[in-house]
Structure formats: C-alpha cells, structure tokens
Description:
single chain; alpha/beta; four-stranded mixed β-sheet; 6 helices; 19 strands; 23% helix; globular
Amino acid sequence: MLDANLKTQLKTYLEKLTRPIELVASVDDSAKSQELLALLNDVASLSARVTVIERRGDEQRKPSFSIGEPGKASGIRFAGIPMGHEFTSLVLALLQTGGHPIKLDDAVIQQIRELDGDYQFETYISLSCQNCPEVVQALNVMALINPRIRHVAIDGAVFQNEVEARQIMAVPTMFLNGCTFNGTSSITKTGTTGDYSVGGNVFTGICNIINNGSSYFLLGNVNPDIWNTDVTFSDNGSERLLPCWASPRSPPRLAHNEPMTGATQVIRFQRSRSVRFASTT
C-alpha cells in the first residue's frame, strides 16, 4: 500500500510515539476494506507501539477505523482510506494519540477540555481537497483533548450513498447533530463553502449564532433545533444565515414554547443584520 519512500518517512515520525496505540478497523469483504487493512498493516509494521485490530459485523461504516489508546474509548475515526491530502491528517492523529504534544495554547486546550456536553462531528471530505485537512485535524485534536467529543472524517467518494442522501454539494461539509448545549454557546461560520446542520440540537443556555463567511449557513435542515433561552442570529458575511430550515411537520421553536408559523418555516437574514429572539417574548 505504502511505497518504500513513504514508509521510510513514516517510520521516522512513528519513532516519536511514547505510548501504544490501537487501530481498530471495521471491515467487510469489499476491495476497499482490503485496501484499508493493507494500509493499517503497513503502518503497524513500522512501529512496535502500533497494533491493528480487525472487526467485522459491527455497526460502524465499512471500511473505517478508529485511532486510540488500548483500553480507552476512541474519539477519532476515519471512514475510507486517508491517503492524498488526508495522509497528513492520519500521521498527525497517530502522533498526537501516541503522546506527541498538541501544538495549541494552554488557554485554548483548557477551553476545549471544559466544553460541557457530548458532541458528535461528522466531516465529509475529498482526498483531493486542499482545505479539508485543516478541518479534520482541528476536530481530531478536540476529540483528543475532550473525551466527550467524537469526530469521524468521511471520504465522500467511498460513501456516495450518504453524500446523495444528505445532498452534499461541496467539501468539507461538517455535521454536528443531536447535541445538548448546557452552557453559553457561540457558533461562528467562516469560509467560502456553504454549511448546514441536520438539526435536533437543544440549547439550554444563551446562544449566539454568527455567519462571518462568504456562503450560506443553514440550520435544522431535517429536524428542528430548540432554544430554551435567548438566541441571537447575526449575519456579518456576504451570504445568508438560514435558521430553522425544518419541515412543517414538526415546527421548530425559536424560543421557549414559541413555535414558528408559515408555510416554509424559514427566516432569512441578509448581510449585516442581527435579530434576537428572547425567551420572554
């Protein structure tokens, strides 16, 4: 799977590991699964600290694999085969899981560690995408710092059925679904590609949602999000902020016990507009 030159480079990096790691592969009999196993076995052959465990019949995407420490739940998973631009993401995940220092300010690490709630991120990527590794690596680091954060990077070329079902038009596309945010939260969109959430999130603390990007930011694409206290939507970018894009079958609530009405269940905010929905109104 890996050529001799790449193996030599990777072996040098893996010498920096200070603790053992496990690569737990979820596979079937497909050619892609065999390709993934070949990659993981090549990696394991370069360091005595790396072990490959093969699993079949579990509920994970196939082929996919997690990276973690023995006996501990893993928050990092790759669905597909992380080559191309994502090979760097794989190497960093191996090193950081294996004890190599994470290069973030202590204050930022502490903020991530203190995040309250359980977060499941899914990022759809392409191996030829130059912007995808930055997103993948940032979320992997968060999963390493905080055990309540999980992230899976999904190669859209391998999981085309999911790409079509979720109507993904560009990469990277990130999903954060079905979470409960118990404290004050601030969510800011940046970048040049559109982003949307399937929804199903509950916000119990004061919330700020901001679009600073140059493309749309859409919330509640399938299920409504619920805010049980004050929420402020601010569009400072050059495109639309679209909260509550849920179907009328289950009207989303912008504030406590205050359902939206209207045929489309959509509120559109144009550039440089800020609208605040208070729980007392």
